[in-house]
């Protein structure tokens, strides 16, 4: 791929065009892993548009796509997350928001090489803006360079987070961590339902930190390179280097704030250490 940055932007925007056009006609809605994990006909159509945009540039491309139906419909080759090169796609990140007409959903496209995100594009569909990055080239918002914040105290920070589909012990842990942040106290905590957008909020300085448990690689792969190139530190919630196989979630903040967030999360979540 000669210009992966151009490719992720074009692909994310192709998917966003489908989502935007179908906002009033979402078709059938069904559940996947739980009653709160939704997928629509638009997710699948947007996935086909994203894959097709990439295949136009690279017919040999391989993919990891959240929605299984996309592979056959787009004629896409399945890839592996640790492959030499693979495209990782979430056609609609924030489907529940999309279904309800809440403006918190996006299209996320990432290129991974040997398990490392090297380019990513996230289109905020309701706002019609795209945040993108490639290794060594910085992060931009519709072509304008952006950076993460320099907030150094929890007391001055605005956080973003999400909630798990599992409404049992996993939710109990998240609520304990959420309470700890609110009592820190931070300025506030926001939730819009799209982890890809949450990463972009940190990368552009609209929010100071993001944490969430139980995410999938397609939720965060684009956001990882976007945040890194914007100057943020990205790890899993256990403080280890993020990888596609990370199963403890994600923690993103500027380098000054990251350690403070990690300490609070580790303390508040310690009673749930065995819960994934």
Say how many strands there are: 15
CATH topology of the largest domain: Fructose-1,6-Bisphosphatase, Chain A, domain 1
Q: Please report the number of helical segments.
A: 8
Uncertain parts: none
**Major sheet description:** 8 strands, mixed
Mean pLDDT: 93
- What is the CA–CA distance across the termini? 36 Å
Helix content: 25-40%
SS-derived structural category: alpha/beta
- CATH class categorisation of the largest domain: Alpha Beta
Tell me the Rg in angstroms. 17 Å
Order of helices and strands: HEEHEHEEHEEEEEEHEHEHEEH
The fraction of residues assigned to DSSP E strands is 15-25%
Number of domains: 2
Q: Name the CATH superfamily assignment of the largest domain.
A: Fructose-1,6-Bisphosphatase, subunit A, domain 1
With strands numbered from the N-terminus, the spatial order across the biggest sheet is 4-3-5-6-7-8-9-10
Taken from the alpha-carbon principal axes, the silhouette is globular
What CATH architecture of the largest domain do you see? 2-Layer Sandwich
């Amino acid at each position: 791929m000669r210009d992966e940055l151009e490719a992720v932007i074009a692909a994310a925007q192709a998917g966003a065009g489908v989502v935007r056009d179908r906002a009033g006609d979402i078709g059938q809605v069904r559940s996947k892993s739980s009653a709160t994990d939704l997928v629509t006909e638009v997710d699948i159509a947007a996935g086909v548009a994203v894959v097709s945009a990439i295949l136009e540039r690279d017919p040999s491309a391989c993919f990891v796509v959240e929605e299984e139906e996309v592979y056959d419909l787009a004629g896409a080759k399945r890839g592996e997350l640790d492959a030499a090169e693979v495209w990782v796609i979430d056609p609609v990140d924030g489907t529940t928001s999309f279904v309800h007409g809440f403006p918190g959903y996006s299209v996320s496209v990432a290129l991974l090489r040997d398990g490392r995100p090297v380019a990513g594009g996230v289109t905020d569909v309701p706002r019609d803006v795209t945040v993108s990055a490639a290794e060594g080239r910085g992060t931009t918002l519709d072509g304008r360079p952006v950076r993460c914040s320099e907030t150094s105290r929890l007391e001055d920070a605005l956080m973003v987070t999400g909630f798990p589909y599992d409404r049992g012990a996993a939710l109990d842990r998240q609520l304990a961590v959420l309470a700890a942040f609110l009592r820190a106290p931070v300025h506030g905590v926001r939730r819009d339902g799209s982890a890809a957008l949450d990463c972009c909020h940190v990368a552009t300085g609209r929010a100071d930190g993001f944490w969430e448990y139980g995410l999938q690689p397609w939720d965060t792969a684009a956001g990882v390179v976007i945040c890194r190139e914007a100057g943020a530190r990205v790890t899993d919630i256990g403080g280890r280097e993020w990888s596609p196989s990370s199963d403890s979630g994600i923690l993103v903040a500027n380098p000054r704030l990251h350690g403070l967030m990690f300490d609070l999360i580790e303390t508040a979540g310690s009673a749930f250490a065995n819960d994934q």
